[in-house]
Amino acid sequence: MDVKVNDSCIACGACASICDAVFSIEDVAVVDASAVAANEDGVKEAADACPVGAIEIA
Ligand code: SF4
């Protein structure tokens, strides 16, 4: 699973509160790619919860 945050991110923090192992908030959300494999359910949940659809899963 490959996860990216696109330019739509408004740094709302929802993804980090759902799955803080993978997402952290700097100016925008940042993905820790090394943590994705162990947290795929959390990544999907965060992507569903993102209010602007900024989390792209490939
Ligand atoms: S939930 Fe979406 S808009 Fe909010 S910080 Fe995460 S990626 Fe950005």
Describe the secondary-structure layout.
Layout: E1 3-5, H1 14-18, E2 23-25, E3 29-31, H2 40-49, E4 55-57
Antiparallel strand pairs: 1-4, 2-3
Put the structure in a nutshell.
This protein is an alpha+beta fold and 58 residues long. It contains two helices and four strands, in the order E-H-E-E-H-E.
Task: Considering the chains and any ligands shown, give keywords for the structure.
single chain; 2 helices; Alpha-Beta Plaits; binds iron/sulfur cluster; two-stranded antiparallel sheet; 58 residues; alpha+beta
User: In the CATH hierarchy, what is the architecture at level 2?
Assistant: 2-Layer Sandwich
Bound chemical compounds: iron/sulfur cluster
Rg, please?
10 Å
Please tell me the total number of domains.
1
The helix fraction, in percent, is: 25-40%
Characterization of the model:
26% of the residues lie in helices and 21% in strands. It is an alpha+beta fold and 58 residues long. The protein has one domain (3-57): 2-Layer Sandwich (Alpha-Beta Plaits), CATH 3.30.70. The strands form two sheets. Strands 1-4 form a two-stranded antiparallel sheet. A two-stranded antiparallel ribbon has the order 2-3. β2 (23-25) and β3 (29-31) form a beta hairpin. The longest helix has 10 residues, at 40-49. The chain is globular and about 25 Å long. The mean pLDDT is 98. Iron/sulfur cluster binds at residues 5, 9-15, 23, 25, 29, 50-52, 54-55.
